[in-house]
Description:
Mg(2+) binds at residues 44, 83, 115. Keywords: Cytoplasm, Magnesium, Metal-binding, Pantothenate biosynthesis, Transferase. Its cofactor is Mg(2+). It is found in: Cytoplasm. By secondary structure, the chain is of the alpha/beta class. It is 46% helix and 13% strand. It contains 12 helices and 8 strands. It has helices spanning 5-14, 26-34, 46-49, 61-73, 93-106, 119-130, 146-149, 158-174, 186-195, 216-219, 236-253, 263-272, and strands spanning 18-22, 39-42, 79-83, 111-113, 135-140, 178-182, 200-203, 211-214. Strands 1-2-3-4-5-6-7-8 form an 8-stranded parallel barrel, surrounded by 7 helices. β4, α6 and β5 (135-140) form a beta-alpha-beta unit. The radius of gyration is 22 Å and the shape is elongated. Residues 43-45, 56, 83, 143 line the site of sodium ion.
Amino acid sequence: MALRIQQLQQWKQQGRPIAALTAWDWLWARLLDRAGVDLLLVGDSLAMVALGHKTTLPLTLDQMIHHAAAVARGVESALVVVDLPFLTYQASEAEAIASAGRILKETEAQAVKLEGGYPEMAATVARLVRSGIPVMGHVGLTPQSVNQLGYRQQGRSPAEGDRILAEALALEAAGAFAIVLEHVPATLAERITRQLTIPTIGIGAGNACDGQVLVTADLLGLSDQTPPFAKTYADLGAAVIAAAETYCQEVRSGQFPPPPLSAAAQTHQSIGS
Ligand code: KIV
Ligand code: NA
């Protein structure tokens, strides 16, 4: 059975860190779920790591639903949370409900995530939560605002830090069940984590958050550009290239496939097996 959002809040109280990763299709989701990842985020970073876009902005709701449905088909245990793509929730609360509603109706995911903590967004979160849709917040560096913020660390000045803390508190008051803190100073993330009763999930936000999330392509060495705060746990990119190179060589040299066995050898093999 899938993890419930209440469990995350219990884990915060117990000091049991939450381990989250992103997923973009059935193949990867299945493996990550088997590894025991607590929360799988179908992040809109899939626009970059799975679709080759330069930013998250071009991703459409239909594309997200296509990917989220595939991820959810591969997951038995993890909580599946889906990013609302850029401009599928900002215009109005009704738009946010329609978009989040499509995600929950057309995929087996349990929750959505949206970016921003300013008052209008907190009101949208409250409206979604009252409609029965669990929502995760996301403050600090919000990549859907890349054209305003770039990919710089956020919350460096005391005033900016206070604003991000206020946004996180507003999202909690609106009913968000957890909040992603992206690329903010560790001291700010710690301050926010202490003041909230809901869990914080950090990415580039130090070690005091209630959980951590990484983009799986970075974790597995599949990205061309890995942010400085990410850790690469396996170099699958190099492994894939080496395997495919060997295959190409063997096909071109006639080493693969091997010549057919003689009829006698085939009979012998089937008896032996
Ligand atoms: O889209 C994404 O991968 C995210 C995480 C970095 C939190 O939003
Ligand atoms: Na995202």
